[in-house]
Specification:
Blueprint lengths: L1 H18 L1 H10 L1 E5 L2 H8 L5 H5 L2 H21 L4 E5 L8 H6 L9 H24 L4 E5 L1 H10 L9 H17 L5 H20 L2
Parallel strand pairs: 1-2, 2-3
Length: 208
């Protein structure tokens, strides 16, 4: 995110050259900034097999490190002139295909300990945003609860139309194609099949 903050600073400098300092400040103050962060820090770092990060930090220590870093970065964004910021929570990473494969999910079930990491992080993130809103004059940091929205989709697929018979038929067709054409099941096919199996299981459960 540090690189993105630098790009934001460069963009503001360009706006200043075009419209002047006062107008540029007004543009940033009235703009709505959307920030999504945290997912890659887990799936492409902490949760990787053989990660040096996970051997150096326990889950709580790593969460604290992330929150401290994000606090500094969001404050930098504020100092650039941002006043209205929406920060999206991390979704249930324990339910994504890569984690279902890497953590040896049974029947496509979400991985509890991974989602536990995420829930702890999200709770700390929400508290951080409340703190920043109360301490930085004129700032509003809004917590967007993406975790519960995605989890609802996963737990209740029929409510979102994903248990339609045409979709389930397509799932069966895909599984047959990968079974018939892959002598060695690739990681990509394996991830897709585990995810599709999870959809089928939840659709059946919701119809009971």
């Amino acid at each position: 995110m540090n690189q993105q903050l630098q790009w934001a600073a460069n963009t503001k400098s360009q706006i200043v050259q075009l419209v002047g300092e006062a107008q540029a400040e007004a543009i940033f103050a009235n703009a709505l900034f959307s920030v999504t962060m945290g997912s890659n820090d887990y799936i492409n770092n902490y949760l990787l097999k053989g990660s040096s990060t996970s051997s150096s930090y326990n889950p709580q220590q790593y969460q604290d490190l992330l929150i401290s870093t994000f606090s500094q970065q969001l404050t930098t964004l504020y100092n650039l002139g941002a006043r209205k910021v929406v920060v999206t929570a991390v979704g249930p990473l324990g339910c994504i295909p890569s984690q279902l494969v890497l953590q040896f999910s049974v029947n496509g079930e979400c991985v509890p300990f991974v989602n536990g990491y995420v829930q702890g992080f999200n709770a700390a993130l929400k508290s951080l945003l409340q703190q920043l809103t109360s301490t930085l004059p004129g700032a509003t940091f809004v917590y967007a609860n993406a975790y519960d929205m995605v989890q609802s989709f996963i737990n209740n697929p029929a409510n979102y139309g994903t248990c339609d018979q045409h979709i389930l038929h397509s799932i069966e067709s895909w599984k047959m194609v990968t079974k018939q054409t892959s002598v060695h099941v690739t990681g990509k096919h394996q991830k897709h099949n585990i995810l599709l199996l999870a959809v089928q299981i939840r659709c059946r459960s919701s119809n009971v």
